[in-house]
Amino acid sequence: MIKIEDLNVSYNNIPVLTNVNLEIPDGVSVGIIGPNGAGKSTLLKAILGLIKKDTGEISIDGMGEKYFRKKVAYVPQRSEIDLSFPITVGQVVLTGTYPNMNVFQRPGKKEKLIAQKALEKVGLTEYSERAISDLSGGQLQRVYIARALAQEADYYFLDEPFVGIDMVSEKIIIDIIRELRNQGKTIVIVHHDLHKVTEYFDQLILVNRGVEAYGDVEDTFTTDNIKKAYGNTMGDITIKGVEK
């Protein structure tokens, strides 16, 4: 279980997230949605300890941030990836095995096989020696999904994984997410396309500077909750799958 208690985050003394309290069970796929600037990525990074919290306690399986790192894999937004860094696809995926190795241990046959299987999973085996700067957006996203798979984690956090990618890559990624969920893994995804919510997620967190609603998709993805989170920015748009 992911447990978040009294989480508050601010940037330059401006509140970004206020009074967040959540308990996310194991074995579910969870979408985080909300308007631009609502604090979706901030919530993800706060859970992972990647940004400073004003207040709050985060635990995963009852363990604090210092202890759950090996259980967690993180796929950042593509905009956060330095494409100028001279590294190949295979090398990126291999770094996913590092959290499970001892200090100063170098990757061996076992780690290389894990990385190879992860690349096969995302359909990019033949790209192993290619520089990441030579990839399309969808291919690059699949590489970082493969890196997460190589970590063999229990919890997967993905920040906007479907933005600007092709349909083939999106299908491969969502199929992997479903497979992970069926294996009992927990997947938390910052998402932007409201029309795919009912298709992709078991549970939903609606965020706008705080949690406006949280629960199973069929109970949470409602017109009233969307209006609470998005205000008047949605206009009269009809969203597929929304409960009235």
Descriptive account of the structure:
The chain is of the alpha/beta class and 244 residues long. The protein has a domain at 2-81 and 153-230: 3-Layer(aba) Sandwich (Rossmann fold), CATH 3.40.50. It is 32% helix and 23% strand. The protein is built from 9 helices and 9 strands. The protein has helices at 40-48, 65-68, 89-94, 109-121, 137-150, 167-182, 197-200, 217-220, 223-230, and strands spanning 2-11, 14-24, 29-33, 55-60, 72-75, 155-159, 186-190, 203-207, 211-216. The strands form 2 sheets. Strands 5-6-7-3-8-9 form a 6-stranded mixed β-sheet, sandwiched between helices. Strands 2-1-4 form a 3-stranded antiparallel β-sheet, with helices on one face. Strand 6, helix 6 (167-182) and strand 7 (186-190) form a beta-alpha-beta unit. The protein is globular and about 50 Å long. The model has no long low-confidence stretch (mean pLDDT 91).
Pick out its properties.
single chain, 244 residues, alpha/beta, Rossmann fold, six-stranded mixed β-sheet, three-stranded antiparallel β-sheet, 9 helices
The CATH superfamily of the domain at 2-81 and 153-230 is identified as P-loop containing nucleotide triphosphate hydrolases
Query: What fold name stands as the CATH topology of the domain at 2-81 and 153-230?
Result: Rossmann fold
Write down the Rg: 18 Å
Count of extended strands: 9
What structural class do the secondary elements suggest? alpha/beta
